[in-house]
Amino acid sequence: MKSATQRKGLTPLQMAATLGHTPLVKWLLLKKASTGVKPDPYLIACSQGHQDTANVIWKMSKGFAIEYK
Description:
By secondary structure, this protein is mainly α.
């Protein structure tokens, strides 16, 4: 079975990071979306100026707990 990246080009987490959709990023990460994909979702969010989204991705990738609201 092909991964989401192989089928569509970007994972849902990468797309949410691109758009700066922080609540969706939180939800995806709480559902165990992988941050170990290329291009890196954290770098995508940073490059698009979505600092809140980037901070959530960074915290979750380092094992910090986040609150989903």
